[in-house]
Amino acid sequence: MNIIGNLIKGTIDLTEKLVTEASHSENQKKVLKHLLNTAKDTEFGKFYTFDTILESDNLEKRFANGVPYFDYNQINETWWQKLHDGKTDVTWPENPDYYALSSGTTGKTSKRIPVTKDMIDSIKSAGIAQIIALSHFDLPASFFEKGILMLGSSTDLVEKDNHLEGEISGISASNIPTWFQGYYKPGETIAQIDDWDERVRKIAEKAKDWDIGAISGIPSWIELMLKEVITYNKVENIHDIWPNLEVYTSGGVAFSPYEKSFNALLGRPITIIDTYLASEGFIAFQARPETDAMQLVTDGGIYFEFVPFKPEYINPDGSLTPDAPSLTIDEVALNQDYVLIISTVSGTWRYIIGDTIEFTDIKRAEIKITGRTKFFLNTVGSQLSVNKMNDAVKHLEDTFNVKIKEYTICAKRYDDEFYHSWYLGIDDDVDTNSFSKTLDDFLQNANKNYRVARSKALKGIKVNTVPTSVFYDWNAANKKKGGQVKMERVMNEDKFEVWETFVKKQ
To answer: What is the distance of C-alpha 30 from the center of its chain?
Structure first.
């Protein structure tokens, strides 16, 4: 009998029953008040008169009117640079314990996002809430006795001045609770290996000794790890070595482009649970099996605002115009893309995280990530978001029975005429002309703005295919393997020229 597993499962079920249904609106009001109260004596809080905002009858509107939007460059150059210069109490009391390094998907240069002890506590709290939510999923009691393999960046953080630096997945893994350490794999020694390929080799070597029930990480890197484990141990699929694998917790990017190739590595279906952990905090997680949408963590250390994702509010660099209106969680609507704005216990204020989302259930505060503000392909008015591109790729997979795990796009001029130039990661021989027509037909049917653009300046689609490994090599050459590294879905013409030069050399 799975005595321990039944005990844990029973405790989770009971805890879930005792937790009253949250009022996400009230949660957010409390979070904003806590943020303002805590930071009112910081340099940022004094400059933007948080004490006066706290006296208002409508904190949300007074806060929105009194503090501007910040992207990373703006808040870093104006405020966080003071932390780097040795000042304290700048945007949050005292100094951050960590900095999360993130190149995101748009450049080599690492952003340095402050991560405070309060944020670590917030991430832990969200993680516990996600574990409690597992009571909604039909998982056997034995699952709760199995190991959990977390594949992120190295936990061997770099000590600098009075803080530590690394990617958020490494920071989070280095702060796992004591009670969780018995479940955590690959363990402290392997997790500290900085070289991703070496770390994966060690995981493959040790895999047969572990009884893994769940894995967690970005889909592209998880796939490569699973392939290495399968190849090294000379088995047919991952269930041949981890027969009790029940759950994959995805995050960082939409899972749908990877679904077909991921499932090919399994011996049977497993539960896929989406999460939204960014360098800036634990934002959302899938709380129930009836949907693949994720519930915002409204009672943690993050206050959310939502700006309608409309071209008139978005600057070419992905930042917002100063007059772009923000909405609270009470004011949002379904089926509308929003730019996500966060203020957090790490001292980010009205911060443009760079993602766009839509609400699928407002009462439950459930969302889907629809793309990136910088990945919104609006050249010649086509107005394509990443979720529309993902849908188009899924349509190609279903139509031609192929696997497409990676892709990137540019609105490129050919002899003064615009085409959408697609590069698809496909390891099979395909008819690119048929792909181009199928993509074009699908997008015209699925997107009115694209259809209008095709009748005017946009002449069509050009498709190129390359081995999937080229995308991984590009990421390795420009950033670093593993961790939070993701492929940029949309490139400008200058970046695309560098990409095409790289492809030709492969």
So the answer is: 25
Q: Does domain 377-505 have CATH number 3.40.50?
A: no
Task: Give the model confidence (pLDDT) of 340-365 as tens digits.
Answer: 999 999 999 999 998 889 999 999 99
The answer, yes or no, to whether residue 422 has pLDDT greater than 60, is: yes
Beta bridge partners of 284: 276, 296
| 3-class SS of residue 44 | helix
Torsion of CA 453, 454, 457, 460, to 10 degrees: 130
CATH number for the domain running over 1-373 = 3.40.50.12780
Q: Which residues contact 469 (CB under 8 A, 6 or more apart)?
A: none
CB 95 within 8 A of CB 163: yes
pTM of model > 0.85: no
Amino acid at 423: Y
Tell me the three state secondary structure of residue 267.
Answer: coil
Average pLDDT, the chain: 85
Token reading at 115:
């991560």
Buried b (16+ CB within 10 A) or exposed e, 109-121: ebbbbbbbebbbe
The reported pLDDT for the residue numbered 348 is 97
